[in-house]
Amino acid sequence: MIRDKCLIFEQNLIKEYEKNPNPELAEVLIKEFSSHFIKNTQPSVQLYEWVKSKSIDASKNFIETEFIFGLRGYGQRPGNEPLYICMNAFCWDFIFKKIPITSAYEKVADIFGRSSDFVKIGFERKNHDFGERELCRFGLDLYIAIHQKNITQTEEVMVLDILKETIDIQMTKDLNHHRAKYMNKFREETEEK
After folding, report:
1. Would you say 141 and 34 are in contact if contact means Cβ atoms under 8 Å apart?
2. What is d(CA 112, CA 109) in angstroms, rounded to the nearest whole number?
């Protein structure tokens, strides 16, 4: 029953995105999708298809990833944050290939035509309010969406070493937040009809 509710929730999110595509909802969809690869579950067909089409496009044009996944536009995160998130996804890719982190910064800098210091700032940047590496963690979700792969135990240890928290901590917070925000919205829309 819980699984069915999760799939219906994802289907409603996709319908909402089709009606009103925006960066905030794109972020929710990416995080919802990545949670399946952390928990080893299956996303809804609709969510899988949404991510799959974007992943194919992103694999052909890395530097457009933030636009392809809908992270730019009205209501987007401020400043360079969408770019940092995308660069962070590529940093995770190199880190999981066991490339030293400084080399990962350099490789990502080459891809995006930026300095390795710029990449490092985006990867190591902390949220001033909470002291968390939110952009780095969201970059991990985007990495999972792009590559559509489960995270291994070795990679979980790498995440813990970098983020100083287990991979499921932020995932659980995000999923709870999404359900609290959007379940009420979907309920209200159903009542209006």
Report:
1. yes
2. 5
3-class secondary structure for the chain? CHHHHHHHHHHHHHHHHHHCCCHHHHHHHHHHHHHHHHHCCCCCHHHHHHHHHHHHHHHHCHHHHHHHCCCCCCCCCCCCHHHHHHHHHHHHHHHHCCCCHHHHHHHHHHHHCCCHHHHHHHHHCCCCCCCCCHHHHHHHHHHHHHHCCCCCHHHHHHHHHHHCCCHHHHHHHHHHHHHHHHHHHHHHHHHHC
Instruction: Walk along the chain (193 residues) and give the pLDDT tens digit of each residue.
Output: 466 778 889 999 999 999 999 999 999 999 999 999 999 999 999 999 999 999 999 988 889 999 999 999 998 998 999 999 999 999 999 999 999 999 999 999 999 999 999 999 999 998 766 658 899 999 999 999 999 989 999 999 999 999 999 999 989 999 998 988 887 776 655 455 4
Prediction pTM value: 0.92
Q: How many whole angstroms separate alpha carbon 14 and alpha carbon 81?
A: 24
Instruction: Please give the single-letter amino acid code of residue 145.
Output: A
Q: At what angle do helices 116-124 and 81-96 cross, to 10 degrees?
A: 90
